[in-house]
Amino acid sequence: MALLEVKIKRVSNDFLDVQLPSYKTEGSAGMDICATLIEDMLIPAGGIVLVPTNLSIELPKGFECQVRSRSGLALKNGVFCLNSPGTIDSDYRGEIKVILANFSKEEFIIKSGERIAQLVIAKHEFVQWKLADELEDSERGTGGFGSTGIK
Predict the structure, then answer these.
(1) What is the pLDDT of residues 105-131, one digit of tens each?
(2) d(CA 22, CA 117)
(3) Nearest CA among 58, 55, 120 for reference residue 85
(4) pTM to 2 decimal places
(5) Percent composition of the chain: helix, strand, coil (DSSP 3-state, to 5)
(6) Confidence of residue 139 (pLDDT cuts 50, 70, 90)
């Protein structure tokens, strides 16, 4: 299997002990990314915070990096990525920061080095819109928002 090589940079020399994003199993699509904090960060119940990672990346054109919730953090603590999946574009060189929301009724504390989100690298297409007066019919047609039923 060919690997895509992506440059990654630590924004500062602080937090050298915090691991780079990594896959936890052979079949993982997402790499866990960790918080880098000088002090613990509190997310109050119902609160939203922006968590630094001290990392920036250089993706090849035609790729994006999606920032997604960690399922265990969401299920066990009600903490998830807002704007998920968030997109890091190939031309962005700033620090990756993760928007976390606490949907639980309890405050949640994030510690430096804690895994807070997943990164998924995905290839994408560039499109050119072609304005048309008509679109081909389909079985679904204009039905949306539950039109295909629950079962």
Answers:
(1) 999 999 999 999 999 999 999 999 999
(2) 11
(3) 120
(4) 0.89
(5) 5, 35, 60
(6) confident
Closest CA to 121 of 4, 36, 1, 24: 4
pLDDT > 70? residue 31: yes
Closest to 110 (Cα-Cα) out of 60, 22, 21, 48: 48
Q: How far apart are CA 142 and CA 42, in angstroms?
A: 45
Q: E strands within the chain?
A: 7-10, 31-34, 41-43, 48-52, 55-58, 63-68, 79-81, 86-88, 97-102, 108-110, 115-123
Length of the chain, please?
151
What residue type is 127 in one-letter code?
A: V
CA triple 110-112-118, angle to 5 deg: 75
